[in-house]
Design a protein that fits this description.
The protein is of the alpha/beta class. The protein has 2 domains: about 5-125 and about 200-270, 3-Layer(aba) Sandwich (Rossmann fold); about 140-200 and about 290-340, no CATH class. It is about 40% helix and about 15% strand. The chain has helices spanning about 40-45, 70-85, 100-110, 125-135, 150-160, 180-195, 200-210, 210-215, 235, 255-270, 290-300, 310-320, 330-340, and strands spanning about 5-10, 15-20, 25-30, 50-55, 90-95, 115-120, 220-225, 250-255. An 8-stranded mixed sheet has the order 1-2-4-3-5-6-7-8, with helices on both faces. Strand 7, helix 9 and strand 8 (about 250-255) form a beta-alpha-beta unit. The protein is globular. The model has no long low-confidence stretch (mean pLDDT about 95).
C-alpha cells in the first residue's frame, strides 16, 4: 500500500501539492512537466520543511494563462497571487530549468519575500542560440485524428535524452548518455500530452529569460547548483564566465541521480533555516474530470510500453474508433489517453 505523503489543493486557479511541515520552501518544476516531477525531492525535504509544489499555470492541473505568449513576469504575478493567498511572507525557492527562470524573475520582482534562491539547471544562451532554438524547438502538437502529433511527441521525448537542443540531431549536440528506460521516456511523453497544444508557453518564456544579465540583477541570497549530470551543464558553467554579485554562490552536485537529491537536501538544510509559518486556510482540491472520460479510460486495456512509442499511437487509434468517443473533441480523446497511462 502506497502512503500519500502530500495533499493537493487548488487556489487562484493554480493547483499545488503540500508536503511536510516547517519553514516554507517552494519548488518550481521544468517544462512541460508538472509538480509530480518534483515528488522525489519534495518527499526528501518534507521532514524539514513545508514544501509547496505548484503546477505552473497551463501545466498539470493549473488553469491556463489565456495569453498568447505569457512572459516570465506574467507567470510570477500568478504565483505571487497564490503565495499571498496562502499568507506566505518569507520563504525560499528551489527552481529547476523553467522553474529556475521563474525563480529568478520572482526574486527580482519580489526580493523582500525571498530568504534563499536555489537554481538548478539554470543557463545562459547567446542571442543567436536563443533565436535558433525558438525557431526549431517547438513544433505544433495540436491533437490530430491520425495520431501524428503523438509520434512527434515520442520523437521529442526520446531525443531530449539524446541531444540538446533535441531538435539539432548531429554529433555537435549529442549528449552521449546511457540508454534511457522506456518508462522515463513514456512519463515525459505523457507530460507533453497533459500540457496539450500550449505546452510551449512557459518553455518559451524560460528560453527568453535565460540570460546572465538577469542573474546579475539578483539581490537575494542565491545558490547556483552545478549538477554534473545536467544536460544543461555547459550552459550553466557559462554563467561563471561573467562577473556575478557577491550574493551568488555555487554548489557542485554529483552526477548520479541517487546522490543528487541527497546532496541538494543536505545543502538546503545547511543554508536555509527560518521560523515555521502557518499557511492560511486551504481548500482541498477535487479534480474535475468528466465521468465519461474516466469510464472509457478504465475500459481501455493498457498496452505494454514500446521503444518506438507504438503503444501510445495504437491506444489513440482504439480510443478514436470507440463509438462512445464519436462526439468528443480531440482534446477530450487525448484526456482519455492520458488517463489510461497516468499512474
Amino acid at each position: 500500500m502506497i502512503t500519500q505523503i502530500y495533499k493537493q489543493y487548488k487556489q487562484q486557479g493554480i493547483a499545488f501539492r503540500i508536503y511536510g511541515k516547517g519553514a516554507p520552501l517552494v519548488l518550481l518544476h521544468p517544462s512541460p512537466n508538472n509538480s509530480a516531477m518534483l515528488h522525489p525531492l519534495a518527499s526528501a525535504l518534507a521532514d524539514s520543511y513545508t514544501v509547496i509544489c505548484p503546477d505552473t499555470p497551463g501545466y498539470g492541473l493549473s488553469d491556463d494563462m489565456y495569453l498568447e505568449q505569457p512572459s516570465a513576469s506574467d507567470y510570477v504575478d500568478r504565483f505571487n497571487t497564490l503565495f499571498d493567498s496562502l499568507g506566505l511572507s518569507k520563504f525560499a525557492i528551489y527552481g529547476t530549468a523553467t522553474g529556475a527562470q521563474l525563480g529568478i524573475r520572482f526574486s527580482i520582482e519580489f526580493p523582500d519575500k525571498i530568504e534563499h534562491l536555489y537554481l538548478d539547471n539554470s543557463a545562459h544562451f547567446t542571442e543567436d542560440e536563443r533565436s535558433k532554438i525558438l525557431k526549431h524547438y517547438f513544433p505544433d502538437l495540436t491533437p490530430k485524428e491520425d495520431g501524428s502529433h503523438i509520434k512527434q511527441i515520442w520523437e521529442i521525448a526520446s531525443n531530449l535524452f539524446n541531444y540538446f537542443p533535441w531538435c539539432f540531431q548531429s554529433a555537435e549536440y549529442a549528449l552521449n548518455l546511457p540508454p534511457i528506460p522506456v518508462e522515463v521516456i513514456n512519463s515525459v511523453a505523457i507530460d507533453f500530452l497533459i500540457a496539450g497544444k500550449d505546452y510551449d508557453k512557459a518553455y518559451r518564456a524560460a528560453f527568453m529569460h535565460e540570460k546572465v544579465e538577469y542573474v546579475q540583477q539578483l539581490e537575494v541570497e542565491t545558490t547556483i547548483l552545478r549538477w554534473q549530470g545536467s544536460i544543461l551543464k555547459p550552459y550553466t558553467d557559462r554563467l561563471f564566465d561573467y562577473q556575478l554579485p557577491p550574493n551568488i554562490n555555487q554548489k557542485v552536485i554529483s552526477a548520479p541521480q541517487a546522490q543528487r537529491f541527497a546532496e541538494i537536501k543536505d545543502y538546503i538544510q545547511k543554508t536555509y533555516s527560518t521560523t515555521a509559518q502557518q499557511l492560511d486556510t486551504l481548500t482541498e482540491h477535487a479534480v474535475d474530470i468528466q465521468e465519461g472520460i474516466l469510464a472509457i479510460s478504465h475500459d481501455v486495456e493498457k498496452p505494454n510500453l514500446a521503444l518506438d512509442g507504438a503503444h501510445l499511437t495504437d491506444c489513440w487509434k482504439k480510443i478514436c474508433m470507440d463509438t462512445r468517443t464519436k462526439d468528443l473533441s480531440l482534446e477530450e480523446k487525448q484526456d482519455i489517453l492520458i488517463h489510461v497511462f497516468k499512474p
